[in-house]
Design brief:
elongated, mainly alpha, Tetracycline Repressor, domain 2, TetR/AcrR family transcriptional regulator, disordered N terminus, DNA-binding, disordered C terminus, single chain, HTH-type_TetR-like_transc_reg, 10 helices, Homeodomain-like_sf
């Protein structure tokens, strides 16, 4: 049971986090203000202190997810100087059971919403750009790096789709870390020497 002090301390971030949890497991269409208010232990009326309507809440939550995703990539991947290590970190992070991956996989099926499609495109293009820059840094020409980045990202999206379709069974029956290392070994050439990054 939520206390009254807890109710008073709720802020937009609390609503956004609860909304992202619904999106991750059930999709955008399952977001219902009344249900989220109940889960948070507040009245539906308190929702309007922070958001104009349901769509406003969803967009705000997705933008929060996008900001957090950028921060994680910047900290855990792009901060790595060596491009081969950076790519290895990408594949390792991609296989981890993070809520962000669940959200992304769910959004791929919710592209009928214009605001979802727009944000999904932004996130995808940003991630592809990170991968392309890393492949260029290990010696690929720009056009080839672009194709290699697309191939690597397609493997990531395919894995997410399969893991979600199998409802976690893929994770239970396979060693995910070994899988990530295997994929990295296939898609990161060991013979290339890193090009100078400037």
């Amino acid at each position: 049971m939520k206390t009254s002090s807890k109710k008073k301390s709720l802020n937009p971030a609390d609503w956004e986090a609860a909304t992202l949890d619904v999106i991750a497991h059930q999709g955008v269409s399952a977001v219902a203000v009344e249900n989220i208010a109940k889960d948070l232990g507040v009245t539906k009326g308190s929702f309007y202190w922070h958001f104009a309507n349901r769509k406003d809440l969803i967009i705000s939550a997705l933008k929060s997810w996008q900001r957090d995703d950028r921060a994680v990539i910047k900290e855990k991947i792009w901060s790595i100087k060596d491009p081969q290590e950076r790519l290895n970190a990408w594949f390792s992070l991609s296989a981890q059971p993070l809520q962000s991956h669940l959200i992304y996989a769910t959004l791929l099926a919710d592209r009928q919403h214009d605001y979802v499609a727009k944000l999904l495109k932004e996130v995808t293009m940003e991630r592809l750009a990170y991968l392309q820059k890393s492949y260029q840094a290990i010696g690929y020409p720009e056009d080839q790096a672009k194709q290699q980045a697309l191939l690597a990202y397609s493997v990531y999206v395919g894995y997410l789709h399969m893991a979600k379709t199998l409802h976690g069974k893929f994770k239970d029956t396979d060693n995910i870390e070994s899988y990530a290392r295997y994929v990295a070994g296939q898609l990161i050439p060991s013979g290339k020497k890193p090009a100078a990054e400037g």
